[in-house]
Amino acid sequence: MSQVVKSYYDNNAEQEWNRLNNPYSKIEWLSTLRLMDRYLPDSGHICDIGSGPGRYSIELLQQGYQVTLFDLSSQELALAESRIAELGLQAEAYICEDARNLYVLEKEAYDGVLVLGPLYHVHEAQDRLGIIAHASRVLKPGGTAIFSFINSWGCLKAGVTEFSDSYRDAENIYKYLQEQQLNENEGFTECYFTIPGIALEEVRKGGFDIISYAGAESFLAGMSGELTRLFHEDRQVYDHLVQAASETSEAPQYREATEHLLIIARKN
């Protein structure tokens, strides 16, 4: 990842910790936890690549897994280590390194791998394939990985309410029908937006069989404003919707057009 991406996460560690608490991102959080619970092995060693401040690592540690946190940002890892210590938990290791350098990890050391973030920021296909292939290398035979991508199709839908002014130029609408490389002035930092077919093929090329895939926001994709309103005005309706969305994230009718595409794969 570039220095631009590293600086973004170094400067926004606390924001990253809090992000999954906001009313809309709560769906992503619950959907991802549900997939982890369903597809990761019941116990063992997990490498959380792109761990950020450790939200998912903490959940795994509390369930008894041995967890290694791997992240580009020293500030994110410092926050993770602090929060983990506050809870009386202990991670196996904290590794501050670029995800393109997964060769520093031991071969076949992990039962499961999470890659929930790094692929958002890698513009070059060769680099993404390298990350995926190394995720396969560090997994034990038959090990499970969960990869997350930003889905351009879902961002197109979200843009109707979040950045519709940009659609005054009709060309900007059609850009979201394909993969995109965004610079720091176009996205929240340097970003890569994919589409489902490309992402699935990259995971296969990296040495995996696809088990399933999901759209984290499910049928609530693009409804950030309305969900935030319901969170404050009708919590029961909000809770019911978010619960249902997290339970249906793998449904074929929803998973192709959400902002966060989650691919569950087994090392082949």
UniProtKB/TrEMBL annotation:
Q: Which UniProt keywords apply?
A: Methyltransferase, S-adenosyl-L-methionine, Transferase
Name a single GO biological process.
Answer: methylation
Q: Which residues form the signal peptide?
A: none
Q: Name one GO molecular function term.
A: methyltransferase activity
Q: Which InterPro entries match?
A: Methyltransf_25, SAM-dependent_MTases_sf
Pfam families on file: Methyltransf_25
* Superkingdom in the source lineage: Bacteria
Residue stretches making up the Methyltransferase domain: 46-143
Q: Which Gene3D superfamilies match?
A: Vaccinia Virus protein VP39
**What protein am I looking at?**
Methyltransferase family protein
Taxonomy of the source species: Bacteria, Bacillati, Bacillota, Bacilli, Bacillales
